Protein 1
Amino acid sequence: MRPRVRFAPSPTGFLHVGGARTALFNWLYARRHGGTFVLRIEDTDVERSSDDMVTGILSSLTWLGLSWDEGPGVGGPHAPYFQTERLDTYRAAASHLVEAGAAYYCYCRPDDLAAKREAAQAAGSAWTYDRTCHALSPEDVARREADGQARAVRFLVPPGITTFTDLVRGHIEFAREHIEDFVIIRSDGHPTYHLSVVVDDVEMEITQVVRGDDHISNTPKQVLLYEALGAPVPEFAHVPLILGPDKKRLSKRHGATSVGEYETQDYLPEAMINFLALLGWSPGGNQEVFSRDELVERFTLAGISGGNAVFNAEKLDWFNQQHLMRLPSEEILRRLRPALTAAGLWRDTFLTTEAGWIARVIDLLKPRARKLGQLVPALAPFVSDEVVYDEAAVIKHLKGDGVADHLAAWREVLQALPTLEPAPTEAALRALADARGIKPGVLIHATRVAVVGQAVSPGLFEVLELVGRGRVIERLRTHSS
Ligand code: GLU
């Protein structure tokens, strides 16, 4: 059977890295087994949910490339995929449970419940619902219904033990005496989380529930609901929490926690995916850098480890660099196009007559870039006549005694060379330095600053060849006597 899995965010905040990882694990599992990845928006907490958050979550998932097969925007056989549009389904399921004797109406008022709870606490004991309303006679219930009394629906927890197997945690047993008759429909007619999540997972034929560890304590109640509804219980995999480096639950204190912030900070989605995948999951072996396809190929739920995962931002930086290195130059160019256009550095010939050249420039620059956007200023001296000079570098390398003179001589040597091929150009520079009794470094540093405006660059002779003789000579002229 092909798996059907889901990601079910509540749109009460942006997509958190923990949520993104849950989505990723579900997505990888679906893709690995040719299954279906469902996206369901759990927006029943109307006060705290917002359309902006829905938009933000969808956009972060899209940025990560976690495409959903059913859900908002794409529809599917189990539409709608917003819980607020499915309230009738939950109410029908609750009525069915009441009719079957698996649930009952509860007319207790919140004040009365609070008073009982306080009294119990004052006496030093924990309070669970005392089944007052389960004991009502049919006549009493009929009278209250006729009166139109507000009522919730409570699930009647049967005696015994609930067991389930968690694919991460193993066999779990839970004595039902510790579970009170929980509310499944509130007195305002709204379902509680337990009911809506189970009804939807049943209706949507979910086969594996992969979600955060914080839901493990909810699972016994949910298993009871599956059983009462006569539905097969899915497999569960509860994924360990993500912690900050101090081993406390990852929070704002540790830095950015929403996926959107990482997008704004110019991380590559490939890096984010790779980084998130290894937070709590291990493919075995030493390989760390994985493409999306490799992750799909390797992913197993059994590879999710029980230990909590530590979020290490430096590691994310490292992944970013690794993936940037692996990104083909054409793809880099495609992604940089908007930024290059905005900077006035784009021209269409990058895609035609200059394609080979710009690819070489990008390949030369990318090993030094930590973020994609850093390539825009790095490309500027290659693609534009204007050079932005770093003042400190100019003072240090171009203003020294005799430098302008040395550069004038060097310019003439370059003019006489047939090409700016790196090896002969380097040999010519060293010969000139010798002849003038200076260290080659003097000429190398001065040339670099004159040509790219910075004290650092990739290998100077590769740079000179790719900047091109015309521009190199022009820039040396500006800085020579
Ligand atoms: N909507 C729940 C949440 O965002 C997820 C429920 C579930 O995965 O079972 O925490």
Protein 2
Amino acid sequence: MSKELNSYQIAQEQIKEAVKKLGLSSTVFDILKQPERELTVAVPVEMDNGDIRVFTGYRVQHNSALGPTKGGIRFHPDVTLDEVRALALWMTFKSAVVGLPYGGGKGGVACNPKEMSPREIQRLSREYIRAIAPIIGPEKDIPAPDVYTNPQVMSWMMDEYSKYKGYNDFGIITGKPVIVGGSLGRNEATARGCSFVIREAAKAIGLDMKGATVAVQGYGNAGSIVARLLHEMGCQIIAAVDSTGGAYNPQGLDPVKLAEYKKENGTVKGYPGSKEISNEELLTMKCDILIPAALENQITEDIAKDVQAKIIGEAANGPTTPGADRILTEKGVLVLPDILANAGGVTVSYFEWVQNNMGYYWSEEEVNSKLEVKMVNAFNEVYKMFKNNKGVDMRTAAYMVSISYVSEAMRVRGWLGQEPAVAKSRQVNLA
Ligand code: GLU
């Protein structure tokens, strides 16, 4: 996260605008601008050389009006409490925009897993989950993967929590390996959801997916799979960058081979037949669809003024700053905001939790088709809000849709005093 840009303040600014546009009272903003609960933990971990290192971890529960809080755990050197607050806040509205019966939460540990051994990461995962165990639970707060955490980490955390409880509690965490209660399709879900929303957006603005050019920033789980799925829909992937370097080929890159190359070499840089491209060049290059799939605050005002893409699909959380948003709106770029575009991950996490609760598991086709229904419905609802309200961009429209549901839940629960109703009641878990 950049020093000058505080994601938490940005997140607050985003919801303030939507609360105002909906004509809701300041009480709604006063509740939503801050988390319901936050916990900071010191996590001592024995390193392989026998030293003890104490890591700082967080778990933030933003709002539980619609259900238990839900959201991933990030392992990254730049994790701060404010970043986790922002990410937790975004989760509340992400879950609400796709109609999940969840609130938002998030966790993080300031650490660099790239410099830790698998055994050190395992010890950290177990110690961290023990430290936050008193405030989480399948009916309270359900973690999941995020940046630099994965199914293996989820499995260790589930195992540790199950030991703490004294029985197998698969519903405590989602994004697990399939053998221990994970859902088929979860690994690809963020990317798949993103590809559905991009497809719908392209339809809405009359952009043909066949031959549409795509540039991807970040070639990890989300970025590389979105690239593959868009390629399957007929798009041409012309460039990708990661934290080490980039690869560009105007004739198109094979997204699967590129992912294999990255796995072997740790970067997309140097991919055979490609030219090098910098991060900034990629963000501002001529292409139809731009996918930020890395970290926060990547598309700043400076970048936004040179963006040439027609659609931006935010696979990452918080990649665009508010100043950049304004510039992109003026330029007529259709930004598919993170809380909509990357909601596929938490949607299939919800399916995983439902399957764990039932003890009955679905086929991958069933998961994917249920995901498609949710994503297409959410896109249509947000797009309608965007079209029906002058001066509102897609991000504000997505917040307006989700805040209206969160606020209605708070109102009927009696959290808002005499606040009048704004949202029609909706059955939140409607397919
Ligand atoms: N970390 C993911 C996100 O930011 C997934 C959260 C989840 O599955 O609960 O949406």
